[in-house]
# Entry
Amino acid sequence: MTTINSLVPKTSAGRYPMQLGGTALLMCVACFLAGCGVLESEPPVVAFDREFEVLGRDASVELTVVDESGGVAEVHVVLIQEGQEVVLVDESFEEPTDGDIRTYDIGRLILDKYSVQDGPASIGVTVVDGSYSGNQAEVTRNFQFDLYPPRLEVLSGLLYINQGGSEAVVYRVSDDAVSSGVQVGPHFFPGFPTDFDGNRDTHFALFAFQYDLPTDTSVTVIARDGAGNESVLSVRNQVSPLAMRNREIGVDDAFLQKVVPEIMSQSPQIRDQGSLLDTYVEINSRLRSINHESIAEMSKASEGEFLWDGGFLQLSNSQVESLFADRRTYMYDGEPIDQQDHVGFDLSVVAGSPNEATNAGRVILAEYFGIYGNTVLIDHGAGLISLYGHMSSIDVATGQMVGKGDILGRSGATGLAGGDHLHFGLFLHGVPVNPIEWWDARWVEEHVLAKLSPPVE
# Structure
């Protein structure tokens, strides 16, 4: 049996210090117990991984309980709805350990143990630690179960889509949706409200069918509410395949010496790989991906309205040097060193030619930009961004509004360019699309503008 004296340290002679009075003895015991953590007075910490006021059918909520001193001795979690109490967790631990961390997938436990009903509910959590005082934490969360997804209706009929091309879809979604748009393979294209038909529930989305996706990839409209409930409707479509060209691009020492030091000086994301050739491959592959990821990130700030008008312009009097989605194999000393897809058009006139804005929009980048060298990016609204690369000079600034045909700067050979030309590209929410469609005013009218025109009475 443990006695008070057994908790008091002995002298070097093995005897208890008899001179300790009652008060001193109690203080010694208290200090000893506190040192062992048994008088710890802090309750356990209880935390959900997110705030929630609404949960859906597939609730995603994780609970974490922590006790730094004394450990977790008991965890009790109950769900209460309409007077019914469902035990989700009822655990006791015989040997709690300081620093205990225990996690629970509350969403999964609810699905496993309860038939969820629409309406108000609450979750109660009680945690007791392993200290002598049995510190306790109690947490209650009140919320609503929402089991019904947003209402969704696709208004667009059969869509004729080109692999590597763009399209527009119009749909109606109820106002409880917090996000909606088009899903094509791994890519999501957000929708935006439009009132062309006088219905505030009407939305549109511009989307891309990436050039290397299989032609049977599904196209769906998706709407999600705040509880995570999701409505999904298929979009009827026909996809025409894109014939991709395969080309070999020769790389020599003179080219490496020209492009690698320049790009490295402007691109802190890339480290020297020990040789010009290895560093070039790092630039051609990894920096290319970084640049395209940056465009996708910038497109998230694109407003849901068209800043452009009518068909888009191809660079005046330009000759096409390389096509969209050319698959390039890069060769050095007769051996392949890399393979990348060219997601734009190389256009040339004469050295130092004026580069024109393909359509109206807002300049969102005007600086050196990785593989594209001196670059201008223009946001045309609704996630559509045009790129002008390899320029020798830039005559516009970030934030500036430009009109169709305005001069942005002059062509050049900066970045990964072997000679003076303009690299022109179009991206929809970061996915490269074929500019040929947008250069065709008739295509723009039939596939985009006509779908967003007021109905004919």
In short: The radius of gyration is 32 Å. Helices lie at 22-36, 106-113, 253-266, 276-299, 435-439, 441-447.
